[in-house]
Amino acid sequence: MPGDPGGIGPELAARLLADPKTAERAVIGDACVFELDRAQAGASFDLTPVETPDDWEAVPPHALLDLGTIAAEDIRLKQATEAGGRSTGPSISPPRG
User: Fold this and answer.
1) Do 28 and 1 touch, CB atoms closer than 8 A?
2) Which of the four, 9, 40, 46, 64, has the lowest number of CB atoms within 10 Å?
3) If pLDDT is split at 50, 70 and 90, which confidence band does 5 have?
4) How confident is the model at residue 38, as a pLDDT?
5) Average confidence score pLDDT of the chain
6) How far lies 47's CA from each of 58, 76, 86, 90, in Å?
């Protein structure tokens, strides 16, 4: 999920993933960001970790390629931080499996 981990994007993604009308999704980002925003959005959904993009189809409905670019304790909601900025780059251009 591109963007600042302390911004609104991950919370919006959590709401979309919780919607039963939402199709199967592969999520690229940080597991700790999605855990925080799932709780913040009051959303309920499962994310199945995968090691490579090749594994996405094997784990419906929602696969997560965890980039591990930020620690949970470094996330500051509604604040731009150096750690948040550093984590944004890899989420825009994820590694290929």
Assistant:
1) yes
2) 46
3) low
4) 82
5) 77
6) 13, 23, 24, 20
Q: Are 1 and 35 in contact (CB under 8 A)?
A: no
Which backbone phi and psi does 34 adopt, to 5 degrees? -70, -35
Q: Which of 31, 27, 30, 19 is nearest to 56 (CA)?
A: 27
* Residue reference for tokens 């999920």: 1
Give the tokens for residue 8: 């609104």
Instruction: Classify 26 as helix, strand or coil.
Output: strand
Spatial neighbors of 15 by CB under 8 A, at least 6 apart, are 41, 43
Please state, in angstroms and rounded to a whole number, the distance separating the CA atoms of residues 65 and 68: 9
Quickly list DSSP for 38-78: HHHHT-----EE-SSGGGGGGS-SEEEEE---S-GGG--TT
pLDDT tens digits, one per residue of 14-25: 777 788 777 677
Nearest Cα residue to 88 out of 4, 30, 23, 16: 4
